[in-house]
Amino acid sequence: MENCLLIINPVAGNGLGRAVAPELDWTLAKSFAHTHLVFTRGVGDIARIIGHYHDQVDAVFVAGGDGTLNEAVNALAPYHFDRPLGYMPLGTVNDIGRVLKISQQPKEALRQLSRLRTCSVDLGRINNQYFMNVVAVGQIPEAVKETKAEAKKRLGKLAYVADGVQAFFQSNAQTYDIIADGDHHIVETELILICLTNSVGGIEHMVERARIDDGWAHLLFLKNRHSLEFVPELLQSALQGDISASKFVQYRRAKDIQLKALDQPMTSNVDGDSGPKLPVHVEVLAGQLKLLVPDLRT
Question: pTM of the predicted model, to two decimals?
């Protein structure tokens, strides 16, 4: 590949995006003859940038947080994902970076990115929007969505954990109508997750069996939360490496999920940002996206 469009969120990582730009540009020069470096200026800017440069480049590479990556995925959708996409994680949580084994330390990540390979991974589609990692529904993701920038700067991903735990103890279960691959369920729960990977909210063992290229959505929801064993048992499951195995979590995998709120209007959270209001239709698009990832093979 000759030409790469490099899009950097300059404020990601408390300004780290602008700081790493020269080194990342130089690193990508080992894989591409030419790079076109562009800084974003605000939310939604990536679609404009990709639209302008699409016909001039062979690949797109973004540096930023999970939201930056999600923007890039959706900006490539009108072009049927016809350009491979690379990523350097610079955000607070960086779930996809964790899944791809890209270091959270910029210097090490730059070293890893000096050798690239292409792989195919799954995408999810929720109504008319695309995602790479997770759809969350409930009062916990609603609270996490409101986590303040200052708290994220001071506490990192622990800021999300703090807001999520507080919301959990203050929330009431809601009733949902779920259809998963044709199977119909009415459930009462505080939290529903539809995951494409095994890392959610920085917890890298949410669904141990989930893989970014397995062709499945992994559906989880909480149950029986009023048991005295609930919190310690969930923590134990997390430490053992698979929250989906907890007796307080209902788990199944599916390729097509329809979700409707029955008690009150609810809004989904998609890869950490606000998504469409329920009802929603979630589909797995197996192998839809080509990713440029570090070649860690020896």
Answer: 0.87
